[in-house]
Write a sequence for this structure.
């Protein structure tokens, strides 16, 4: 029995930190107003109970780069395209598509709206 406890203790002590915390989802939904959408889910970062999707993996890196400051990490992720589908994470979150799933992209209307906003913003600068 002692060996089992020692093995369990070793697994717990050597396991990488787990960032799946309710306060992360609360902060995400508050920042992006996603409470009434499918993005009010742990699937924003996780593809399963044990693994990150592309957005979650990038968030973990940005948390480390930003001294675990969640708001700074979320800001750093906004212009990135974690799932390499040609939409920034912010575009996908705003369109309520999964930022970590390349198969879930904004609809054509949402994409056109974001293109218009980007052009308007670039002209007004």
């Amino acid at each position: 029995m002692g060996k089992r406890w020692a093995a369990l203790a070793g697994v717990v002590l050597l396991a990488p930190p787990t960032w799946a915390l309710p306060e992360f989802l609360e902060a995400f939904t508050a920042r992006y107003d996603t409470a009434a959408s499918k993005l009010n889910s742990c699937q924003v970062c996780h593809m399963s109970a044990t693994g990150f999707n592309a957005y979650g993996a990038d968030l973990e890196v940005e948390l480390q780069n930003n001294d675990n400051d969640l708001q700074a990490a979320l800001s750093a992720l906004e212009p990135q395209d974690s799932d390499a589908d040609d939409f920034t994470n912010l575009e996908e979150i705003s369109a309520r598509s999964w930022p970590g799933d390349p198969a879930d992209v904004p609809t054509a209307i949402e994409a056109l709206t974001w293109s218009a906003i980007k052009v308007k913003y670039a002209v007004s600068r």
Observations:
- The two ends are 68 Å apart (CA to CA).
- The mean pLDDT is 81.
